């Protein structure tokens, strides 16, 4: 097999939601760089419906055609028992697990005031519960071998904001906090955990309207951001070369890589006698107002064309 750098040579990597899109390209890139890959995908639609074993096996076939090693797994990330079977698949097939890439996701977009409980639950279970369940299943093995690596997919929908995605945004911001907690709790065992917010054209954003020339032009620009552009950072973070990266949040947008900020105090006010509701209104809020954040959406912050 023609490899890139061999940066993950011999590592066993689990990639969830790897039957297509970003996950597929990550799985293929891992294999090219020498990893043995568990390709997990239930084969469902973007909304999480209609399981099909085909996509995962198709990616495994691509890996084997490259001369690499891979195995398909179709268990769901959304329940503890089935997530555990994903990790067991790695152990049964390859004897160990070194890297977990939590990529599986679905969308059920709806404005908040119209969102149903089922739409909320479905997205939270796949993204947030899924990242927890798969990570938790791998944790004892990472601890025992004193090494391991988690890479989670977050989103600027959670880090910044987007319309009609309360379920997805809440889950994705939750994933960043989960990642930081894992990094803190498992650092002593030489285990790392980082997040990536990927910008890429995939089924997940394929419903963007193209009714006007401006909208079509925007979609054409977004289509430059192929899923394959995400994979190099993922492979690097999975390698020992990235040993100093832990608890970080990155973003990838076409040929750009960003380090994203994490919440920290930006301004404070103090009154020695303490606060009353009236003094908060007359003093604290006016003093802090200059640093208030606008109601930005992701596209407002990343407002320039991809390079």
Automatic annotation (TrEMBL):
Coiled coil: none annotated. InterPro entries: KR_dom, NAD(P)-bd_dom_sf, Peroxisomal_Beta-Oxidation, Sc_DH/Rdtase_CS, SDR_fam. Residues 11-207 form the Ketoreductase domain. SMART domains: PKS_KR (SM00822). Gene3D superfamilies: NAD(P)-binding Rossmann-like Domain. This is 3-hydroxyacyl-CoA dehydrogenase. Belongs to the short-chain dehydrogenases/reductases (SDR) family.
């Amino acid at each position: 097999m023609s490899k890139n750098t061999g940066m993950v040579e011999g590592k066993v990597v689990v990639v969830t939601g790897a039957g297509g899109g970003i996950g597929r390209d990550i799985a293929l890139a891992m294999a090219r760089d020498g990893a043995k890959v568990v390709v997990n995908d239930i084969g469902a639609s973007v909304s999480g419906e209609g399981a099909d074993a085909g996509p995962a096996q198709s990616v495994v076939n691509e890996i084997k055609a490259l001369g690499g090693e891979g195995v398909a797994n179709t268990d769901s990330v959304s329940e503890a028992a089935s997530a555990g079977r994903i990790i067991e698949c790695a152990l049964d097939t390859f004897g160990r697990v070194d890297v977990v890439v939590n990529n599986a996701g679905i969308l059920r977009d709806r404005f908040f005031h119209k969102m149903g409980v089922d739409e909320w639950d479905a997205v939270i279970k796949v993204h947030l519960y899924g990242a927890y369940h798969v990570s938790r299943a791998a944790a004892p093995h990472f601890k025992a071998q004193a090494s391991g690596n988690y890479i989670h997919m977050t989103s600027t929908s959670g880090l910044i904001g987007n319309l009609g995605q309360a379920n997805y945004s809440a889950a994705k911001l939750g994933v960043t906090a989960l990642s930081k907690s894992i990094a803190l709790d498992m650092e002593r065992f030489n285990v790392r955990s980082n997040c990536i917010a990927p910008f890429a054209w995939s089924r997940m954003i394929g419903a963007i309207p193209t009714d006007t020339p401006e909208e079509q032009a925007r979609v054409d620009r977004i289509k430059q951001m192929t899923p394959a552009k995400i994979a190099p950072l993922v492979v690097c973070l999975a390698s020992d070369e990235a040993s100093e990266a832990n608890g970080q949040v990155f973003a990838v947008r076409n040929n750009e890589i960003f380090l994203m900020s994490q919440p920290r105090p930006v301004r404070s006010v103090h009154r020695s006698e303490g606060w009353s509701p009236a003094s908060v209104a007359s003093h604290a809020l006016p003093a802090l107002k200059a640093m208030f954040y606008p109601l930005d959406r992701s596209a407002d912050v990343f407002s320039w064309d991809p390079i």
